[in-house]
Amino acid sequence: MPTAGILIIGNEILSGKVADENSPYLCRELRGLGVDTERILTIPDDVQVIAAELKVLSDAYDFVFTSGGIGPTHDDLTIEGVAAAFGVAIEHSDSIEERIRRATGKEPSETLLRMARVPAGAQLLDSGDRWFPLVVVKNVYIFPGVPELLRKKFESSRELFRGIPFVLKKVFVRQNESEIAPMLNELLEQYPELLLGSYPRIGQESFHVMLTLESRDPGYVQDALDALLEKLPERAIHRVE
Amino acid sequence: MPTAGILIIGNEILSGKVADENSPYLCRELRGLGVDTERILTIPDDVQVIAAELKVLSDAYDFVFTSGGIGPTHDDLTIEGVAAAFGVAIEHSDSIEERIRRATGKEPSETLLRMARVPAGAQLLDSGDRWFPLVVVKNVYIFPGVPELLRKKFESSRELFRGIPFVLKKVFVRQNESEIAPMLNELLEQYPELLLGSYPRIGQESFHVMLTLESRDPGYVQDALDALLEKLPERAIHRVE
Q1: What's residue B205's pLDDT?
Q2: A16-45 confidence digits (pLDDT tens)
Q3: Which of A172, B61, B107, B174 is a good FRET partner for B42, with 20 to 30 A between their CA atoms?
Q4: How far apart are CA A123 and CA A134, in angstroms?
Q5: Rounded distance, CA A240 to CA A233, Å?
């Protein structure tokens, strides 16, 4: 099954000025596509840090998604970081320059031309309705940090990442986690391949715990769900989704 | 200045089932206290992964905050992970057992007693209005994953982490990022110690970019702000905060 690492690049997230909307979106979308996200890492705008962490993620996972640091300003250092991670130079892309010219209808400023710089050997994938392409270096997909743009780019390239999706069942339970924990342990002994999650909720009147049952095998998850529902007292079950 | 790393432990975040509210909260609060958050890392519920990543974070930063994995169920592995990170055993805490007994008014079940296990040598900090203490091992502060509980625990222990806070000014600009980038570069040459952020916003009619100016020296940030406002054309400034 394909695996993924997500690298969020941006001081604005670490300093609490902006909340990261991109990793929750990517995790949800990748899960739906059958891709296992194994790490999310948020780091500062620093070329050496970007390079070092990206190398580790690129070696460890099938796909790496970066978010942020590809605009025209001083703190946009992702292209430098990716190039340093793979020990390649930064090249000027005539194709991107031409796109900027077409999009703006005029001669690009020096600042805008910063956005035509790509790591040597990068692939440019045209996707979505924006002028700029998705830049890909080895298994690293370089996405913009602005959530609306990241989503558009991802939506138009999502089929690149498809694996075998998980089947998810949710059981909302009225009992406390400590009361049902023994039943969950029993269930896992019977269904060792089941991905079983247990999430207490506070301030919900109608249930106390959301249980999630997952597998890529629909029959397996259904059998496990049936077994769980038999173990739980009927009054404990608020609803099943 | 104190630095921090945040370790979010939970398959539910990586699989996109639950959005992480804890790291945005901690980043914001720590920034207000003058602590620099340098990494946020989200990892699966896996003892070996928790141990390995925690060791790296504990060596690199002054404070490490973990979130998640301390409940009574099968996927709550943070205590094991912390113990493995520092090569210490897991001990039963009579003091926590006694707190559970007081809080519930009865003999604790085996499941609840799981919550009385702590890494050997852990400090227990009483804080807030909940029965369970904040468990601290070296520079690692072990917080619950449920956002309401994490906030209560953090609010009652925040003075442990106070450094010298940043002064933040925001300038909302009507021009595009590529138009103002040269002025920003000039500003940084004059004020090399300034933390300057530039964040394009889409779908905002009244401004296109939010600029943030920060420093721990209030005079320095004010001088830089004055210099920036002189550089920008007056019509370009939407507002200053």
Answers
A1: 74
A2: 999 999 999 999 999 999 999 999 999 999
A3: A172
A4: 8
A5: 14
The verdict on a CB contact (< 8 Å) between A28 and B16 is yes
The reply to whether residue B111 touches residue A40, judged by beta carbons under 8 angstroms, is no
- As a whole number of angstroms, the distance between CA B63 and CA B132 comes to 21
Cross-chain residue pair B42–A44, CB shorter than 8 Å = no
Q: Which long-range contacts (CB under 8 A, 24 or more apart) does A181-185 make?
A: A181/B72, A181/B73, A181/B74, A181/B111, A181/B114, A182/B110, A182/B111, A183/A228, A183/A231, A183/A232, A184/A211, A184/B73, A184/B74, A185/B74
Which of A3, A8, A25, A27 to probe the B interface (max B CBs under 10 A)?
A27
Distance from CA of A16 to the nearest CA of B (A): 4
Does the beta-carbon distance from A198 to B75 stay under 8 Å?
A: yes
pTM, full prediction: 0.84
- Measured from the Cβ of residue B73, the count of other Cβ atoms closer than 10 Å reads 25
Using DSSP, state whether A52 is helix, strand or coil. helix
Nearest to A14 among B27, B73, B149 (CB): B27
A-chain residues within 8 Å CB-CB of B195? 11
Question: Nearest 5°: phi and psi at B211?
Answer: -100, 140
Question: What are the tens digits of pLDDT across the range B30-55?
Answer: 999 999 999 999 999 999 999 999 99
The reply to whether residue B31 touches residue A38, judged by beta carbons under 8 angstroms, is: no
**Domain map (residue ranges) of chain A:** 3-161, 167-240
Segments in chain A below pLDDT 50: none
From the list A16, A29, A75, the residue facing B197 with the nearest CB is A75
- In sequence order, what are the beta bridge partners of B141? B65, B136
Domain A3-161 indexed as CATH 3.30.450.40: no
DSSP-assigned letter for residue A38? E
Q: What angle do CA B57, B87, A42 make, to 5 degrees?
A: 15
- What is the C-alpha to C-alpha distance for residues A174 and A171, in angstroms, rounded to an integer? 10
Return the CATH fold of A167-240.
Alpha-Beta Plaits (3.30.70)
